[in-house]
Write a structure and sequence with these properties.
436 residues; alpha/beta; Rossmann fold; Dihydrodipicolinate Reductase, domain 2; Alpha-Beta Plaits; six-stranded parallel β-sheet; NADP; oxidoreductase; ACT_dom; methionine biosynthesis; EC 1.1.1.3
Length: 436
């Protein structure tokens, strides 16, 4: 059997602690599977005195991740610290500079520095694996980087944030407000004390940017993503969607057009009978559309200690099975220096159309005015109906519009014109419809 693979783990939070336990409990099984033992010889975390329920006897402790990356006699540096810059970035760069393989679950780091780090790794002959950075336990990175080689991917989309999916699911199933569901998600540990990064779509955007690069061979461009979160979704939207045959999900969507690549993250109405509409709770799902395979949908746990640790362990095992001198798979699916410049697609009609909810004063001429403003912007309506489960005579009315394919800019102009008429009671709601 080959010499053991020596690893150092930076970060002993939920994921890091789970990884240590799995490696220790299944050491014999992993040695047989990988053809060599996997040995933890170094760790780094902020608090040495904290009781994590781990046996760290005989393992060298380093005060900082960077110190471990620079000095530890390791073959693999496992980064579970998090953050786009700071300690995580410095440590990963230090490890790669020594030619040490890196495994990371850090989507923020990759979204900001991924191409540069990939170049470093390839120049040093080191591996940079990051399966856990996107969709937790779903092996979507390996699928795009290896299994779908030869396929031309045209579109990739999915549910990539368990916090948002949990909130939207609970709103629908229990009829609770967004605020109430967010509080419950925080109580259960699904949402952070400051949940903005999740609920405003940033987490999904980072993951989508990484998948876009793997799918289409362009440089990572997280700043070119249209971004919209779920904090303005109401129970009225959830109920109206259900009545129309849809369910609301926060989707990340990227696809290739003749003019470039379109990337967007936003709440989306998907048909109730679609597979992705059935993905509930903290579960994630990613769909890939390609010319040879057709459509591939992968569903699984998107977060949590064991799910993420499983993906990290898979990356470590791949390194353990690799052999010196054998050509490795490029970090981002193709050599980093050959990635094309990102070209943002020109605006075009959204094929699925739009859902628009308007709460208006109960007065004559409102329907006609709304229809006129839509027509002025060349928006074709599939339906326009008064929609109210409880309607008080003389009180505000809810009007629901569903459009055919149209331009985003046209929708915004029409809504702005409607707002100028002064019969709206509150802000309009606009949600894309995705014909999955």
């Amino acid at each position: 059997m080959a010499d053991s693979l020596r690893i150092g783990i930076a970060g002993l939070g939920t994921v890091g602690s789970s990884l240590v336990r799995i490696l220790q409990q299944r050491s014999k099984e992993l040695a047989i599977t990988c053809g060599r033992a996997i040995e933890i010889i170094a760790v780094s975390a902020r608090d040495r005195s904290r009781d994590r329920g781990l046996d760290l006897a005989g393992i060298t402790w380093f005060d900082t991740p960077e110190d471990m990356a620079k000095k530890a006699e390791i073959d693999v540096f496992v980064e579970l610290v998090g953050g786009a810059s700071g300690a995580a970035e410095k440590a990963v760069r230090a490890a790669l500079a020594r030619g040490i393989h890196v495994v990371t679950a850090n989507k923020a780091l990759l979204a900001k520095h991924g191409v540069e780090l990939a170049v470093m790794a390839e120049e040093k002959g080191a591996l940079l694996n990051f399966e856990a950075a996107v969709a937790g336990g779903i092996p979507i990175i390996k699928a795009l980087r290896e299994s779908l080689t030869g396929n031309h991917v045209s579109r990739i989309y999915g549910i990539m944030n368990g916090t948002c999916n949990y909130i939207l699911t609970k709103m629908e199933k229990e009829g609770l407000s967004f605020e109430a569901c967010l509080k419950e998600a925080q109580r259960l540990g699904y949402a952070e004390a400051d949940p903005a990064f999740d609920i405003e779509g940033n987490d999904t955007a980072h993951k989508l940017a990484i998948l876009t690069t793997l799918a289409f061979g362009s440089k990572i461009s997280a700043d070119d993503i249209y971004l919209e979160g779920i904090s303005n979704i109401t129970i009225e939207d959830i109920q109206a969607a259900s009545d129309l045959g849809y369910r609301i999900k926060l989707l990340g969507v990227a696809h290739v057009t003749e003019s470039g690549i379109e990337q967007r993250v936003h709440p989306t109405m998907v048909p109730l009978d679609s597979v992705i509409a059935q993905v509930d709770g903290v579960t994630n799902a990613v769909a890939v559309e390609s010319d040879i395979l057709g459509e591939l949908l992968m569903v699984g746990p998107g977060a949590g200690g064991n799910a993420t640790a499983s993906a990290v362990l898979g990356d470590i095992a791949d390194i353990a099975k690799s052999r010196p001198g054998v050509q490795q798979v490029p970090v981002l699916g193709r050599p980093a220096k050959s990635l094309s410049e990102y070209r943002r697609a020109k605006m075009k009609s959204h094929e699925g159309g739009y859902f628009i909810r308007l709460t208006v004063k109960d007065k004559a001429g409102v329907f006609a005015s709304i229809a006129t403003r839509m027509a002025e912007n060349n928006i074709s309506l599939e339906s326009i109906v008064q929609h109210s489960r409880v309607h008080t005579e003389g009180g505000p009315q809810t009007i629901i519009l569903v459009t055919h394919a149209t331009m985003e800019d046209a929708i915004r102009k029409a809504v702005k014109a409607i707002k100028s008429e002064k019969y709206l009671v509150n802000e309009p709601q606009v949600i894309r419809i995705e014909r999955t």
